[in-house]
Amino acid sequence: MSDNPYEILGVAKDASADAIRKAYRKLAKKLHPDINPGDKAAEDSFKAVQVAYDLLKDPEKRARFDRGEIDASGQERARQQYSYRDFADAGADHPYHSAAGYADMGEMGGVFSDLFRGRGRQRGGAVHMRGRDVRYQFTVDFLDAVNGTKSRITMPDGKALDLAIPPGLPDGQTLRLKGKGEPGLGDAPAGDALVEVHVRPHGLFRRDGDNIEIDLPVSLGEAVLGGKIKVPTPDGPVTMSVPKEANSGQRLRLRGKGVPKGKGGGRGDLFVTLTIKLPDRIDDELRDLIERWSKDHAYDPRKNTQV
Amino acid sequence: MFCEADLIGMIEGLRRAELRRWIAQGWVVPERSDGALLFREIDVARVRLIVDMRREMRVSEENLPMVLSLLDQVYSLRCELRGLAGAIEAQPDKVRESIARHIHRRRGGEPGG
What we know:
The complex is a heterodimer.
Chain A: H1 5-9, H2 17-31, H3 40-56, H4 59-66, H5 84-88, H6 110-116, E1 134-140, H7 142-147, E2 149-154, E3 160-165, E4 173-177, E5 193-199, E6 206-208, E7 211-219, H8 220-225, E8 227-231, E9 238-242, E10 251-254, E11 270-277, H9 284-296
Helix pairs in contact in A: 2-3
Chain B: H1 4-10, H2 16-24, E1 31-33, E2 36-38, H3 41-55, H4 64-89, H5 93-107
Antiparallel strand pairs in B: 1-2
């Protein structure tokens, strides 16, 4: 083999650093001793390629070589490294030994079944690959997502998973269950189960970040005179005061009755929007009262809705 | 045996995060002792090989397990082949000649060629 580094790498004398690197990579892929385990010639060629590359990748050395100040010799790599194959080729007593290339021969019967039966099997082969992640979807009730819950769910593939829904879980959040995916090969760990959780809408509550909104009807009397009313919240009903002269659309806040904020602690708020609800049947007394009252008390409830 | 810091010091350009990832993927299987990682010489050489493949051969991490798996199979087959060759070597001449004839017949080559 030539000892001219340009010829060894197969590049022109004026090749760019990039071209030199590319040529080296191409040769490394072809000649690397670990991908040519039985080829002594490839190993020698690879050494020569490395020496050539060491010289040409260093602009200063390359310039000195071009000027004839140094030759290609004396560039031997100083440290003698062991290559992977020195160990991998030495025997089967290491975790990377794999029976995958011949395991079926033990099942063919005859002499190989005696020679290879169980060989490598007790190691489970030495292909070590982390198991794949598995994705699932799951829907929880609104209140379970707010308050948190534990549930055992059965996936389409029949696998049961214990899923802990943390309090305050937002819609669309993905929960990772470590090691609950597909099993790994060899000594590698299993993959994870990724469960995308959807929250079923609630008939009363609407979620807005950490806050919850609810529309709550009040009677005409409660609105005009004020009073105490029961308000549903995610963790049970509480009593709230409606101020006198309340109106439809008025928003009242119940502090700390919203969604738990997770690790930091605390909860969002519950906002109650009042709607005045007339009785299901308007009796004569109410009609007469309104009739009399309206005569002298005309007001425009739509004054803010003019276009 | 080498600890993780030794290993990182020994291999130029090796980052702790990628080493950890390779271990998590099962591409490198160090021993563990009291929670510490211990690398055998073969592990060091394997990490060096992976670094070579990533940097010099431009093998992506996506393709690495395929290459490693094939390499492991080749080395393991070589190991078995060597064992078989040793066993054949130990046979009487007549048996060895008979085996050689069978092998060549299967290949379609000339016996004893």
